[in-house]
Structure formats: C-alpha cells, structure tokens
Amino acid sequence: MSLPTPPTPFPVVRPSDLRTSAVSSAPWLIDQLWTAQAVGIIGGTPKSYKTWMALEMAVAVASGSACLATFAVPLPGPVLLYAAEDSESALRLRLESLVHHHRLDLAYLDIRVITADSLRLDRTADQERLQATLMLHRPVLLILDPLVRLHAIDENAAGEIAILLGYLRLLQRKTGTALALVHHARKNVSASGAVPLALERAICDLGPSLKLTSTIHAAESARDPLLEQILALLGQSSQPRTAESLRSSLQVRNQRLVEALRQLSEQGKVVRLSQGYALPRNSTLPLMMESSSPRVAPR
Fold first, then answer.
1. Alpha carbons 295 and 291: distance in angstroms, whole number
2. CA distances from 254 to 132, 198, 239, 258, 276 (A)
3. Alpha carbon 59 to chain centroid distance?
4. Are the C-beta atoms of residues 149 and 143 closer than 8 Å to each other?
5. Angle between helix 254-266 and helix 243-250 axes, rounded to 10 deg
6. For residues 126 and 242, what is the distance between their CA atoms, to the nearest angstrom?
7. Of 168, 170, 128, which Cα lies nearest the Cα of 147?
8. Do the beta carbons of residue 210 and residue 68 sit within 8 Å?
9. How far is it, in rounded angstroms, from Cα 126 to Cα 120?
10. Which of 133, 214, 218, 239 has the smallest set of CB atoms within 10 Å of its CB?
11. What is the pLDDT along the chain (299 residues), one digit of tens a residue?
C-alpha cells in the first residue's frame, strides 16, 4: 500500500533574498491618480462620466500626455480595454473626441480593444483567456467597463466579491498590468479611496471631453480638516516646523501627515525648507531639494 503524498510546504526565503527592482515601491502610472501596480475602481453614480474618465486615462497612458491636462503620466505604455456596454462605433467616437483634445492621432496610439461578445471574470475559461491576452499584448493598464456586466455573482455577498477581487489581484501580480474597473455605485454609498474628482463635460468644435472643475482644490480642503489645522499651526509659528513637530502637535499618523503636507505643497499653500515646513511668505529661506525618484502611492 502506497503512503499518502505529504503536503508541499509554501516557499519561504530570507528577507535578504527577496527580489528587488529599480523602484522599491509602486511608482505612479498617472501621478496622484493610479499606481503602476493598482487594482482599483473608477466609481460613481450613474451619468457621472465614469466611462469618459476611464477612456481619458486610456488616452493619457497610451500617449504619455497629462490626464485631464493636470496629472502627469511618468510611465506611458500600451492600454487594453473591454467595454461591455458601448458599441464599437460609440467607443470609437468617444476615443476620437478625447484624442483630438490631446492633439493626437488615434491611429498612432497603442490602445487595443477586446472585441469578444462576452467576458466573465467568474468563469475559469475566461480568466485563463484574459491572462493569455495580457501576456500576449503586455499592456501597462487594463480597463474593464463596467464591472457589473463582467460577472454573475452577488455583489452584496462579501465572500463572493472577495474571491473575485483576489483573482484580479493575482492577475495583476502575474502580468504586471494595472487594473481599472468601472463600477456603478449606489447614491447612498460612500466608499473610501482617493479624493473624488469634480468633473464636467466640455463641448467644443473638437467634440466632447472632460475637464476638472475650478472648485476641485477647495473641495479637497473642505473634506480634510487636517489641511486647515496644519496651515493654522504654521501661521502661528515664527519659524519653520518639522514634520515630526507637526505630528506631535496634531497627534496624527505620520502617513496621513505626509500626505496632507504633499497636498498643501502641490497647492502652493506651504513650502518645504531646510528647517522644515512654512507658509510661502517665508520662502526666502533656502529650499530643501526634493528627491527626483517617483512618488509612491499611499498604502
């Protein structure tokens, strides 16, 4: 009688043997919007321009031009997308309109469209075909629109959704492709994630496109009282204050403080000096040089 085969142990290595890359953390695919290793959702209520936003991201990443004329694309590359609700003609018209606003030619952009009638993320055969497609075309970004049309599971069942998201994360790790899922959110649901973008559709001779509303920075500040608290502390101080000094006074996590200081710096409301952070009126002091390496997404 043969003995049962013993289970195979999980692979284990020492920390010094872990694989490294040129960039130790995930760099931005689209600055401040999407990292090169993200599996995320472009979510919103119906008619909130989710599909337009996804296609704007596709054009920006494929061309290397700024997304929404605001967010830089440091890692451009091929984009693959599947649009379950748009016809081929409607999808082409949307893309052509956005491409014209970027002053580009659609024929020369490395955007590729999956034209299958059906793609189901909860079916093993389709999962295998999708992975094979990614390995063949090697996109840096895959857009799936919308998520609700790509499965037949109960989205209210946490266990079933966890399995689906687990598969998508595994797919990202195997292929190195960032994944963006367009998702219709209910009006009474508030999800955590990046600061919402205030968008409006612009119409001109070139056709429709998206743009950020002028109130976006004001909306960001209104949603996070920490920004105003930092400005108040710096306004009360006659000298620049270090991040550690601010964190001690505000009693917040270091990661949250760093992100808040980054936002304020990008808005020009604070400056980073050799002695710490200060309001712009103190900017005659010597500036601290920033690192040229890509920023990483907050964890």
1. 9
2. 41, 28, 21, 6, 15
3. 15
4. no
5. 120
6. 52
7. 168
8. yes
9. 6
10. 214
11. 678 888 888 889 998 888 775 544 568 999 888 999 899 999 888 888 899 999 999 999 999 999 998 889 998 999 999 999 999 999 999 999 999 999 999 999 999 999 999 999 999 999 999 999 999 999 999 999 999 999 999 888 888 889 999 999 999 999 999 999 999 876 544 454 555 666 777 766 667 777 776 544 444 444 568 888 898 888 888 889 999 999 989 988 888 898 889 888 877 788 888 889 998 863 333 333 333 332 333 33
Q: Amino acid identity of 31?
A: D
What tokens does 111 get?
């955007």
Residue with tokens 């687990």: 166
Amino acid at 245: S
